[in-house]
Design a protein that fits this description.
The structure is a single chain. This protein is about 65% helix and about 5% strand. It contains three helices and two strands, in the order ββααα. The longest helix is centred in the middle third of the chain and has 28 residues. The chain is elongated. The relative contact order is 0.12.
Length: about 80
């Protein structure tokens, strides 16, 4: 994951290799558009997880987001996606 000017972005090659690792047949191909779409979905997912974790930490009067805050928001986050 590379960060430029506060923007979250994932490398296309990483997304492509990750998706291809789940293909059952070697003949299955992945288009460039599918890779870009998945990268955008991951970006939104990561941003939403960060925001929800921050809100959970604030609700518990904590100054810092911890893994416990992320663990608390994770079930609902997965259901929402």
């Amino acid at each position: 994951m590379a960060e430029k000017d506060g923007e979250i972005c994932f490398k296309k090659e990483t997304i492509s290799k990750l998706l291809c690792s789940f293909f059952k047949e070697d003949k299955t191909k992945l288009s460039g558009d599918a890779t870009l779409l998945m990268a955008e979905m991951l970006k939104i997912f990561v941003q939403e997880a960060a925001v929800r974790s921050q809100k959970q930490a604030e609700a518990e009067d904590c100054d810092q987001v911890d893994i416990e805050h992320f663990e608390k928001i994770l079930p609902q986050l997965l259901l929402d996606f």
